[in-house]
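User: quick one, fold this
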Amino acid sequence: MSIGGLISQVLALVVAVTLAPLLTGWISQWRAWLQNKSAPSIWQPYRALHKLFNKEAVVADQASRLFRVAPYLIFGCMVLASAIVPTLSTDLPLASAADAIALVGLFALARVFMSLAAMDIGTAFGTLGARREMLVGFLAEPALLMVLFSASLISQSTSLATIVETLAHRQLAIYPGLAFAGVAFTMVSLAENARIPVDNPATHLELTMIHEAMLLEYSGRHLALLEWAASLKLFTYSCIGLALFFPWGVAEAQAPAVMLLALPVLVLKLAIGGFLLALLETQLAKMRIFRVPEFLATAFLLAVIGMLIHLLLAR
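Assistant:
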């Protein structure tokens, strides 16, 4: 492991952990502005995390050890997932050890622990949210894999660092398959991050909520870790989309000094993406839970079509 690679990896982790709540606050602020509401401060997620970390964690008597350990495992999975995605540089030691398939596996592992912890107490809301979460994951993970495979066909590798290097430094070209994959990825991202039209992160209605239903029994530092993990997941998905479809601005492995320029470029791209997400959520309405399988099945078909188009054009 080179010194430059170690610095790039540590810097990527610090940026992800630090900027993830800021991205959530940016989206919430723009969403409120677009709805003609009084917007919260962009620093509100940091204040909420600080407040929760200073509160005592109340745990039910019948809670098992899994309920107490799950927030730390979920947060660890999200931190490790953010370390695989090339946000500032492609010189990431973990990128060679874990590819896109392992990245999807980390998301799945976090989902399993979240669902098991939600059902551990035995409440109706927790079990309801866990079942819905597993339904979304069962349909979203294959679609995400197809999106990643569509991009990997161009670089002949499932490593995200290799995909970014290939797309960013190849002659500018139009890939019709990536257009379909981009639409599919957007649909999967909305479902995986509990955003409208699949879920509404700002509501606690028992008939519609998915992610929030699994957090009702958590408090204190446990809830803070889960909220931070949710922000990290949104940040990681945003960076995956930028790496696959807008890879320009990421430093090469041979040029670690360019990371100083890569950081403001990343912040700018995330700011634009956060605004577009808030605008999209403002224009869409929450769909019925029974329509979610059709929504994600459409995403899967679009990703498969994108992969088939690339295979046909490559002949």
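User: anything notable?
Assistant: The two ends are 39 Å apart (CA to CA).
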